[in-house]
Structure formats: structure tokens, C-alpha cells
Amino acid sequence: MGVTVLQPYPLPEGKSGAHIIDHLAKRLLSLGATHAGQFLVDCETFISTPQHGTPARAVHVLHNSEYPASTFSIIDNGNGKQVALVADSIFDLLMLKMTSTFTSKKQTKIESRGARFEYGDFVIKLGSVTMMEHFKGILIEIEYRPCVTLSYCWEMIREMLQGFLGINVAKEYPTYFTTQTIMNAMGQQQLHAKQNDIYEPMDTVKQYLEHFTNYRKHVQIHGAMGGGASSVGTVGGGGPGGVLLPSSVGMGGRS
Q: What are the pLDDT digits (tens) for 47-87?
């Protein structure tokens, strides 16, 4: 695998999610990309029962169709710190047996699914984000396979995004990769440039959780997309191309 970046796509006024995704799929195919199946990333959150005055903790369980044998989990202790782990599919059964301790927030279960394309060294996924069958937005995943460090290939990824999305993408690194303050082994704070790290599959999962959290916070509930989320991956159908797009969009998720 290479480096992956997620890009929310603005939904123009009066256009449906299905129409926009169909338009983007046609644009990719016209550039020479090939349709390479479907993809799915989902997230379910479990909340712990507070005990002895301890704050509630959240366990986010995610699945990525690129890694069908794995279950990804991110534990949020409520103090801004997260612990990430990777397990096999039996982890889902474990969570079901812990109902006395963790309660699933099924009303916030969220997923991104759609068509997967390959274009040279790039893998591009056009995701329709839905929560409780309500359409929430469009999330583009782009992977540049020959590179494993974002700082070496960000400009190439950015140019690719601008080329087929038809929007301006900020020169700054996406919010997930911005410089962070961490605690070193000596207990001292220091700046950490995440864009220079070796990219791992968990980084993709954490980016999805970041954007899913933003979509969950978004108060406006869009109507369900025509045809349902499962029909988004179909290439070649739908309405005519040509949409009006904003002149620019930031790399962060919706607030």
C-alpha cells in the first residue's frame, strides 16, 4: 500500500449525491481510469457505562474492505487520548458479549461505500457517506501506491485531486497530517511532523474516523440519496455531466 488522503467533496445546490458521483465516475473513465470493483468502510461506536466516577469511554469499531480479515478499533478514553489496535473478525463477537459494559450507538452507525477505480499509480474511491440510511455527503479516497511518506508525494496527490475533481485543493497538508505536539519518553512536549511518518493502514482508518465524526456532528440531515447507497457504485448510469462547483474547498471535514 501507499499513502492515502481523504477529501470531502462539496455538494452543489440542487444536485443529488448520486448525480455527482456518477459525474465524477464518468470523468475518471474519460481520463483512462478503470473500474476496479466496490469498497466499503463502516464505523460503529460503543460507549462504556461510567463506573466509580470514571468518565465514559468510546470504542470505535471500523471495517475496511481492503482488509477483509481485520477489525480496526480506536479507543477514546475521554481525555483526548486514543489507543488504536488491529484484531481479527472475532473482535466483533467480543464486543457483542460485552453489552453489560459497552452499549452500541446504532443510531450513529456510519459508512462510506461506492466504486473503486485504478488510474496508473493511483487508486481512487468515490464514497457515498450514509448514516441510518440518510445521505450525509461525498468522501473521496485517493491512494498513491509508490510512496509511503506523504511529504514526498503530497503535491502529486494534490494535483491529481484538482485535476479530476475540478476544485482548488489547499496547499497545506490535510488536517490529519498537521504537526502535532506529543510527549516524548522523557515526559517533555515536542513537535511531531506526522507528514514525515511511514504510512500505515491504521492511518487510513483514523482519517475515516475523523471525517465520520465531522459528519455525525453535522446538524443538517440530507434526504436519502435516490436509488440507495448500494447503487452508487454503478458506473455509466445517471444524469448528464457538467456541474457548478465552488472555487475552493479545504482539506478538513465538515464541522
A: 887 777 677 788 999 999 999 999 999 998 777 678 899 99
Contacts of 180 (CB under 8 A, 6+ apart): 191, 192, 194
Within 10 Å of residue 231's Cβ, how many Cβ atoms?
16
Q: Are 79 and 1 in contact (CB under 8 A)?
A: no
Residue type, 181: T
Q: How many CB atoms lie within 10 A of CB 206?
A: 18
**Structural domains of the chain sorted by starting position, each given as residue range(s) with its CATH number in brackets:** 3-216 (2.40.320.10)
Rounded CA gap, 240 and 18, in Å?
Answer: 12
8 A C-beta contact, residue 172 and residue 251: yes
Q: Hey, what's the cell of 106?
A: 446504532
Q: Are 8 and 211 in contact (CB under 8 A)?
A: yes
